[in-house]
UniProtKB/TrEMBL annotation:
Name recorded for this polypeptide: FAS1 domain-containing protein
Pfam families: Fasciclin
Biological source species: Notodromas monacha
Domain called FAS1: residue spans: 60-222
PANTHER family linked to this entry: FI19380P1, PERIOSTIN-RELATED
Gene3D superfamilies in the record: FAS1 domain (2.30.180.10)
Source domain of life: Eukaryota
Length: 259
């Protein structure tokens, strides 16, 4: 993905290129709207034109659709297919605020805890995966970053709280990179930080407006090693239930035979 600044103050445009080398698809994203480039590289006397299939800045996708089509959110979307977590965000009658870990955020978790992440990606612990994702989701409310900064702590679907703070560069200067906000409301150079239980994640793309809420892409996953314990005793719930059922039946059979 390539990020460039648009003519509108503090609004970034993101260019995506995906697909096989012989059939690359190009798209552009700004203010929460993704558009396909249908006619590229049209030469003009003072520049280059690109014809796109949607007007940038007027949302037309709900949170589910945006999550399923944005390349930066692919891993989160794939994980959300477990236990049908994603499906709730198709409901246009409800509102959502989703802090979506970027692909790179999940890759950082992979390097820190490869065994746990392998199990999560394989779907071996869908309950744990859903719990982690619920920690990033605010149900029944659509909130921009500035609203959450003013409110302080906000309640998440899992029951815990997170806090969104604003940093203008004086604090955490060496910890976060400058953020380009999609809507252009905050002052230039503003960075937003999301904090949960001692973990601080920078907002990489904020205020991505959808028809039923907002998405904020973050650079870290709000999870700890204890969320997925992988060891010789760790057995998926279904396997454990089957083992207990077999043990109980064996016990009852032995008792009947002894009568």
């Amino acid at each position: 993905m390539l990020q460039v600044r648009s003519a509108s103050p503090d609004v970034s445009v993101w260019f995506h290129a995906f697909g096989p080398p012989d059939n690359v698809t190009l798209s552009v994203d700004a203010a929460g709207v993704n558009a396909s480039i249908v006619s590229p590289d049209l030469a003009a006397s003072n520049g280059i034109l690109y014809v796109i299939d949607h007007v940038l800045g007027i949302p037309y996708q709900n949170v589910f659709k945006k999550l399923s089509t944005d390349p930066m959110m692919k891993i989160t979307y794939d994980l959300g297919t477990q236990r049908n977590f994603n499906e709730q965000m198709e409901d246009d009658k409800k509102k959502f605020t989703f802090f979506v870990p970027s692909n790179e955020a999940w890759e950082k978790q992979q390097s820190k805890n490869p065994s746990a992440m392998k199990k999560i990606m394989m779907g071996a612990f869908p309950g744990n995966t859903k719990m982690i994702l619920e920690r990033h989701l605010m149900a029944n409310e659509a909130m921009e970053l500035e609203e959450m900064v003013k409110q302080g702590k906000v309640q998440m679907a899992r029951g815990g709280t997170i806090q969104v703070t604003k940093d203008n560069g004086a604090k955490n200067r060496n910890k976060v990179a400058p953020q380009a906000n999609n809507k252009g409301k905050p002052e230039s150079g503003t960075r937003y930080l999301v904090e949960w239980d001692g973990i601080v994640a920078e907002v990489e793309r904020g205020d991505i407006e959808c028809t039923n809420g907002y998405i904020h892409v973050i650079r870290d996953v709000l999870m700890k090693d204890k969320d997925v314990q992988v060891n010789t005793a760790a057995v998926p719930v279904g396997a454990t239930s089957g083992f207990l059922s077999f043990t109980l039946l064996s016990f009852l059979a032995a008792k009947l035979l002894s009568l």
